[in-house]
Amino acid sequence: MDGGPYTVSGVMTRAVVAVGRDTPFEDVVRLVEEWRAGALPVPEGEGRVVGVDGTVAALETDGVPRRPAPAGA
Predict the structure, then answer these.
(1) pLDDT of residue 69
(2) pTM of the model
């Protein structure tokens, strides 16, 4: 992007894809790839966002998502 200023509508879409707390890693990866997203919101209840799943972006090296290490590894 060149110098701003920018509006939200200029850099974001209206369609939003979100995941739940228990969404499997494979599904997060698929959604990130399908929607070309860097992270996905995690809403609960009445749609209040309680977190952001940036797992895939945090695990990427050379553009390839990596599976997180098992707990305790």
Answers:
(1) 54
(2) 0.60
